[in-house]
Amino acid sequence: xxxxxxxxxxxxxxxxxxxxxxxxxxxxxxxxxxxxxxxxxxxxxxxxxxxxxxxxxxxxxxxxxxxxxxxxxxxxxxxxxxxxxxxxxxxxxxxxxxxxxxxxxxxxxxxxxxxxxxxxxxxxxxxxxxxxxxxxxxxxxxxxxxxxxxxxxxxxxxxxxxxxxxxxxxxxxxxxxxxxxxxxxxxxxxxxxxxxxxxxxxxxxxxxxxxxxxxxxxxxxxxxxxxxxxxxxxxxxxxxxxxxxxxxxxxxxxxxxxxxxxxxxxxxxxxxxxxxxxxxxxxxxxxxxxxxxxxxxxxxxxxxxxxxxxxxxxxxxxxxxxxxxxxxxxxxxxxx
Length: 336
What we know:
The chain contains 13 helices and nine strands. The protein has helices at residues 13-38, 47-51, 72-80, 107-110, 121-127, 134-141, 159-169, 208-217, 232-240, 253-262, 272-288, 302-316, 324-335; strands at residues 54-58, 85-92, 98-100, 146-151, 179-183, 200-202, 222-226, 244-248, 266-269. Mean pLDDT is 85; it is low at 1-19 and 329-336.
């Protein structure tokens, strides 16, 4: 098995400093986009689209105060609210036990400077019992929730053995129907050799065009990315190839309706329970009062369309945040 070069390389602290700055800017820009879309009504979706709506709870229903992300409590809340699926992150302990945690280090959530890859599972469980194993998550939610399992970039010390461990854990589940593997780095998919290519979903941040090409060329199950960057033409391109689209992070009724009307298959959200409530009430409305659907609204005003375009460009060229001077020049050019 050929293992990608990145698996054996570690990132530097300076890289993470730049990355965190750009990541914070992205969240601010996405928040502005969400606000604009939330204020403009969208056509009421067809009943069939509401019935087939697949909302994915991003790291479970959490607030990272009372309920932490990627924990059984967060996933229980998703199950209780009737949400279609959950997205979670998988990492490996030193003794090759797959666990569910976004960061390799537990400092951000649990205030403990502990790298998952450097400790055995027994020590991790004793120190931070809230972190579940992948085995526990599959046993508790398999066939009850659709599992979107994010494969992280990390060192695979025994790739053949690790692939075998995953194969055993997912043995009773059907790939594509019960779960998908997703990743920001599609190279990681090469480690998993026991599922069809349609089980894999590349996730784009700003590199949507290249991720889309990878998905099409590799016959993957589809592609996922931010809804502002996922264009209607890209959706059509993948639907024509019998591939599916996932978008995130939807947070309002109007955004939800927009994605349903565009043919989005999976809707990722940090407020999945809220969206599921909207879907449930809308479905009742569609069944009981079919003649009261609102008319198709007017498109966004020209000024706000221009503002959204600016945000789209800012997201696309977010790399300029690594240099404040370049970022300032970039913004001035876009406002001309």
